[in-house]
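Moderator note: this is an archived Q&A kept for reference. The question asked for a predicted structure of one protein chain; the sequence and the answer are reproduced below.
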Amino acid sequence: QVRLVESGGGLVQVGDSLRLSCAASGRTFNAMGWFRQAPGKEREFVASIRWSGGNTYYADSVKGRFTISRDNAKNTVFLEMNSLGPEDTAVYFCAAARVYYSRGSSYTTERAYDYWGQGTQVTVSS
């Protein structure tokens, strides 16, 4: 049984940092990603990383502030978030993809992913 368990969300102040973790179990994946959904908005791509090679993609809104990384041995992906602002307030979801896509940018879309975590709330207070 595949499980994705997120952790690390919480309430922070503007300018603070936060690190999210997503522990995967049940099988290996070709890529993992983070998406987020703010109140009243659709879920949007944040960042992705290939398991082999470590190629990463970021949404323009988080480039330079967020960093996605992985720990192969622990089958865990991380999202380091710096310089947080109110616009980053959302539920953050971890996702995992079984299929290998030669175009890494394919992992910026929800349809590339087969498994999803339950989400973790990040609230940035001003």
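Archived answer notes: The mean pLDDT is 96.
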